[in-house]
Each structure stands twice: as C-alpha cells, then as structure tokens.
C-alpha cells in the first residue's frame, strides 16, 4: 500500500472541495483532493447546477424562438426532444471539467480518483477503480463530499420510469406527461424545463404555497407563470405510494387522488454523501439526512477535520459551498480569508428566474420594522422591451426613516445577475447602503440595471 503525506486532504472536488483545495494550496500547503468520479467537478458539474442550468438555457431559447414573431416568420414552431437538448449540457460539462482539471494542475494539487474513507483522524484510505488502495496521511482533512437526492425506501428507483434529480439526466425520451414530486427549488426548475419542452407537468407540493421562503408576491408570480405554461400545481399533497407500470407510473396520494404519467421525477429532499466515509472510525456523527455538524469555523467535533458545502446542510447552494470551502481552508491556514458564510443571495433558475437577498415583507412585518416598497416592472423597461422579455419586476424594500436597503427581490430576465447590484449596496456602511444611492447614480441606458433607479424613485414617492 502506497503512503503519501500532505498538509491538507480534501474529500470531494465540487465547489466546496475546490474552494478549500485552492485556498490551502495558495497558502503554501501541500494538498491532495480525493473524488469518487474519474473527473473533477463533483455533483455540481456532473449532475446538478451545471447540467440543469444548461438545460434551462436551451429550453428558454427554444421558447423564445417559438414565441417571437420575428422568428415565427421563418418557420413553424420547432420541437426538440429532451435528449437533444441535453447534448448542449454535455458540452458545457466537458468544458467545465477541462477548466477545473487545469486549476488543480496549475496549483500543484494531487488528485486521487477513488472512494476515500477515514482509517483514523489523520489517515484517508483511497480505494481506486482498479482495486488498488492508497493511504493519504494529513494534518488536516476537509469533508466536501456534497449530497445526493434523498430516496425513500418505498419508492422503486430501479423502475425505468421512475427518476430522481440525478438519474433524470439519463432520460432517453421526451415524455408526454411527467409527475414531479416535490415543489422546492429543484422541482420548480425541472417543472419549467419540461413544460418549456411542451410536456404536461403535474407538480406535487407538500405545502400550501410554492417556495414559501420567497417574498409572497414573487412566489405568486412564479405560480402564475408555471400555470400559464401548463404546469398543474397540486398543493398540500403527500404520496401514499408510487406504482410503476410497464408504460408509465401511477402516483397514489394520501388525499385519495391517482395521477398517471409517462414518467415520475422525485425532487423531495437531499442526503449528505457521508455513508461511505467511515466517520464512525473517528467519532463523527451525522444527522438523519447524513449531514455533518460544524462550528462557525467549519470545524467538526474532531479538531483537525473540517466540513463544507452541501454535506453540512443549509444553504446547499454551489455559490455558498465554494465560499464555505475557502473559509474552511482559511481556518486551517489562518491567512485572513476566513468568514462565516451567511446572507447569501438566492438564485432559482425557473423560467422566468428568481433571485433575492435580505428580508422579505413577511419577515419585516413580523419584526415590526417600518419599511416601504419600491417597484420597477420590466414591461416598462426599454432593455426588456428590446430583448422581448416583458415578464418580471425588481422589488426593493427599505427602511422608511433611514432609507437603508433591507431586501432585494427580483423576478424575470437576468434576475440572478441583477440582484448583485443590490447586494453590493446592502453590504456598504452608512449612507452608501440607502436607496438614495440608486437615485444619485447614473445608470447606463438602456439596461436592466436601470430598474434600480426606477424602483428607488417609485419607493421614495411613497414616502410622506
């Protein structure tokens, strides 16, 4: 058995693992990364963020072609199969793997492909695909193994018509009708993707409101646009059983309803990838969803072992995971790069997309904070009109007395880009983080960013 010595070993090469490895390497540490795949990038690159967002982008282009009068003059609406659209995602994945492989090479980070597990708190044993076992000894270890879809034992995921949000990427046909169980972020995104391809979608929600953590007005807007695109949303429903047929699936709900479709997609929860890590060998316990508990330095209950990304739970976003991994390494190398990652922007890539940061109206009302609202509707914005993207709005929440920006909520074209302007202002101090910034700053015209100026004037006009 070969033995290698390192300062830091990182388990996982997704955003959290990459962030940790790069920060430690740039601080002069000798670093190794272990990944169970034969390519770097983690679930984010191969199964989650990258393929689903690439799928969404292609579907959105198809929808724009089929609804834009200029394009319709040159041909009838085009139909594309799910496998055809997926090819664009595969090309993006290959480019991402190539880029990330280069990052590790340039920073002299060793990458081991195999299943890594703890022999003790300083030793990782890696079982390679060919059966060879290699031993990595390190001063510090970072767990960044990500998560996978939660699979209840009473659902047969081996059935060819039953998928989760990972295996759906192997779908070899375009169903006429699909049931999506779970109306969280992933379920809502896939509802947009499939409905955009002309598939009839039944979206099953366990709750009484879609994405209830959002600003209520934004949640309502998403519900309207999904329904407008033939998504049937069923609230307050729970499954009794999922029956796989030769040519489809029947979902039995506890309410007594039965729904039949060509395919079934489970999007209800995720589980941390910790079951093969041998954590019992070092005394680290996980919760019922396989997640590891950490302190604000991303240290586990074992002093030299850290964890970051989806494997620690909230907020389970690729953007936050990268910062958490970098911060975990910052705690190790003590180079001033540590920070506890909180108040991150939400990016939801439905069609249209959603992004927000800060408080929503419900939270401000419950906290009895006197706030006012400023809105800019995209249908009145020149750039949105030019881009044929009239759907959406920017909503600013600000303190009535201090004018401090308290929340930014955006729905529509480029929402996940637009939100960062508000995020930057909210992170300033003093008068720099008030709504007056948007009034006293000249924005390029025409731009989507100009919505901040429109919304700011709208909000100030509501004051008395």
What do these coordinates show?
The protein is of the alpha/beta class and 464 residues long. It has 3 domains: 209 residues, FAD/NAD(P)-binding domain (3-Layer(bba) Sandwich); 107 residues, FAD/NAD(P)-binding domain, CATH 3.50.50.60; 109 residues, FAD/NAD-linked reductase, C-terminal dimerisation domain (Enolase-like, domain 1, 2-Layer Sandwich). Helix content is 31%, strand content 26%. It is built from 13 helices and 21 strands. A 5-stranded mixed β-barrel has the order 1-2-3-4-5. Strand 8, helix 6 and strand 9 form a beta-alpha-beta unit. Helix 1 packs parallel to helix 8, helix 3 packs across helix 5 and helix 3 runs parallel beside helix 6. The mean pLDDT is 94.
CATH domain class of the largest domain: Alpha Beta
The largest pleated sheet is described as: 5 strands, mixed, barrel
Portion in helices: 25-40%
CATH fold call of the largest domain: FAD/NAD(P)-binding domain
Task: Furnish the topology, listing elements before pairings.
Layout (H helix, E strand, L loop, with lengths): L1 E10 L3 H12 L4 E5 L6 H5 L2 H19 L1 H4 L9 H25 L3 E11 L2 E6 L4 E11 L3 E3 L12 E3 L12 E5 L3 H12 L3 E5 L11 H13 L2 E4 L4 E6 L4 E5 L4 E4 L1 E4 L3 E3 L32 E3 L10 H16 L12 E3 L5 E5 L2 H6 L4 E7 L4 H5 L5 E8 L5 E8 L2 H12 L9 H4 L11 H10 L4
Parallel strand pairs: 1-2, 1-5, 2-3, 5-16, 7-14, 8-9, 8-14, 9-10
Antiparallel strand pairs: 3-4, 4-5, 6-15, 11-12, 12-13, 17-18, 18-21, 19-20, 20-21
């Amino acid at each position: 058995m070969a033995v290698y010595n390192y300062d830091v070993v990182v388990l996982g090469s997704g955003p959290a693992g990459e962030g940790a490895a790069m920060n430690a390497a740039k601080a002069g540490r000798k670093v190794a990364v272990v990944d169970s795949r034969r390519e770097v990038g983690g679930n984010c690159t191969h199964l989650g963020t990258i393929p689903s967002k690439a799928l969404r982008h292609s579907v959105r282009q198809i929808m724009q072609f089929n609804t834009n009068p200029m394009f319709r003059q040159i041909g009838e609406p085009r139909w594309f199969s799910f496998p055809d659209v997926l090819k664009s995602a595969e090309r993006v994945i290959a480019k991402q793997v190539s880029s990330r492989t280069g990052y590790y090479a340039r920073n002299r980070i060793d990458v081991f492909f195999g299943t890594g597990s703890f022999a003790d708190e300083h030793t990782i044993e890696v079982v390679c695909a060919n059966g060879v076992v290699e031993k990595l000894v390190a001063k510090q270890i970072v767990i960044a193994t990500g998560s996978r879809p939660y699979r209840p034992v009473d659902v047969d995921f081996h059935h060819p018509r039953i998928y989760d949000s990972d295996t759906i990427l192997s779908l070899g046909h375009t169903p006429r009708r699909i049931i999506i169980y779970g109306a969280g972020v992933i379920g809502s995104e896939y509802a947009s993707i499939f409905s955009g391809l002309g598939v009839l979608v039944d979206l099953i929600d366990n709750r009484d409101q879609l994405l209830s953590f959002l600003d209520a007005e934004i949640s309502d807007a998403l519900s309207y646009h999904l329904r407008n695109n033939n998504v049937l949303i069923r609230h307050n429903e729970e499954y009794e059983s999922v029956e796989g047929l030769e040519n489809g699936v029947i979902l039995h709900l506890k309410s007594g309803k039965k729904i039949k479709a060509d395919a079934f997609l489970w999007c209800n929860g995720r589980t941390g990838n910790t079951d093969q890590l041998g954590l019992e060998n070092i005394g680290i316990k996980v919760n019922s969803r396989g997640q590891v508990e950490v302190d604000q330095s991303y240290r586990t209950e074992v002093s030299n072992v850290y964890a970051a990304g989806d494997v620690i739970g909230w907020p389970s976003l690729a953007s936050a995971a990268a910062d958490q991994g970098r911060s975990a390494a910052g705690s190790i190398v003590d180079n001033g790069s540590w920070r506890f990652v909180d108040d991150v922007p939400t990016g939801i890539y439905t069609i249209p997309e959603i992004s927000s940061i800060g408080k929503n109206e419900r939270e401000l009302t419950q906290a009895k904070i006197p706030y006012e609202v400023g809105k800019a509707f995209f249908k009145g914005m020149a750039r949105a009109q030019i881009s044929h993207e009239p759907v959406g709005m920017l909503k600013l929440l600000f303190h009535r007395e201090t004018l401090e920006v308290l929340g930014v909520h955006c729905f529509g074209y480029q929402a996940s880009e637009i939100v960062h302007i508000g995020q930057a202002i909210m992170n300033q101090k003093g008068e720099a983080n008030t709504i007056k910034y948007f009034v006293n700053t000249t924005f390029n015209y025409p731009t989507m960013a100009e919505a901040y100026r429109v919304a700011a004037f709208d909000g100030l006009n509501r004051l008395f």
